[in-house]
Amino acid sequence: MDRKKLAAAVAEAERFIARAKALPAPVERQYYHGGGSYVDDGFPPKDGGAIRRASMDLTRSLADLRRPA
């Protein structure tokens, strides 16, 4: 295990966690027809893409960490 690779993996993990914590809270929305409401817990596309990218980068850095030198 290489300290440089370990530091890179930790940095990617911190970036992923920061992206995940920055997600906006779920929003209660009203139905167009009728008087009910529902909770929209979906991710905005920009935020969802950023989280997926951070996740892929973290996965790649962890794979590099496990690879023998």
What would you say this structure looks like, in words?
The chain has 69 residues and is mainly α. The chain has one domain. Helix content is 59%, strand content 12%. The chain is built from two helices and two strands, in the order H-E-E-H. Strands 1-2 form a two-stranded antiparallel sheet. Helix 1 packs antiparallel against helix 2. The protein is rod-shaped, with a radius of gyration of 18 Å.
Features:
mainly alpha, 2 helices, rod-shaped, 69 residues
Structural class: mainly alpha
First-to-last CA distance: 7 Å
Element-level helix/strand string:
HEEH
Strand order of the largest sheet: 1-2
Overall structural domain count: 1
Quaternary status? single chain
Helical content (DSSP H or I, runs of 4+)? 55-70%
**If you compute it from the alpha carbons, what radius of gyration comes out, rounded to the nearest whole angstrom?**
18 Å
What is the overall pLDDT average?
A: 87
H/I helix tally: 2
From the spread of the alpha carbons, the general shape counts as rod-shaped
Low-confidence stretches: none
Biggest sheet descriptor: 2 strands, antiparallel
Number of strands: 2
- Strand composition percent: 5-15%
Question: Concise description?
Answer:
The protein has 69 residues and is mainly α.
How is this fold's topology laid out?
Layout: H1 3-21, E1 27-30, E2 37-40, H2 45-66
Antiparallel strand pairs: 1-2
Helix pairs in contact: 1-2
